[in-house]
Amino acid sequence: MNIADHLSDIEIQQHALDAGNSGMAAATHIAQCPHCSGRVAFYQKMARGMSVVPMEEFDFNLTKTVLAQLPARKRSHAPERAFIACVSLVGVFAAIGVFCYLNTGLLNDLLGKSDVISYGTACCLLFAFLLTNLWSENVGKIRRINLPESLQHFPGAAV
């Protein structure tokens, strides 16, 4: 590297903070160039000065005051989560029941309809999934309609 070509600020800062990882060409240039070595010394002095500055501490604690002013959390999603959990559990139990029924072979010889039962279970699980998906998509829309600032609560605004 030519002495007339100075290093960038990023290269000088990397060398100032960690001289071992800056590269041989950069270290050689800094050793030979008084301009770049002066900038390295400046950045090292700045880094030492920043590490000495103590953290600012306050003599009062605002945590309790701020937490007291925050609005209480609304638990509006509990019924939806319970509904989704119930539908999912019914689906899982139905699948387990059909699997056990088909593998035990108790009534399999009498009925001989294992494929119909399998398709029925798959349809029930698909229906449960679609119902859950429909419920979760439309609950937010219904809530937005029932907000007090919507048009249906202002009789003069209705067309």
From TrEMBL:
<feature type="transmembrane region" description="Helical">
    <location>
        <begin position="82"/>
        <end position="104"/>
    </location>
</feature>
<keyword id="KW-0812">Transmembrane</keyword>
<feature type="transmembrane region" description="Helical">
    <location>
        <begin position="116"/>
        <end position="135"/>
    </location>
</feature>
<protein>
    <recommendedName>
        <fullName>Zinc-finger domain-containing protein</fullName>
    </recommendedName>
</protein>
<keyword id="KW-1133">Transmembrane helix</keyword>
<keyword id="KW-0472">Membrane</keyword>
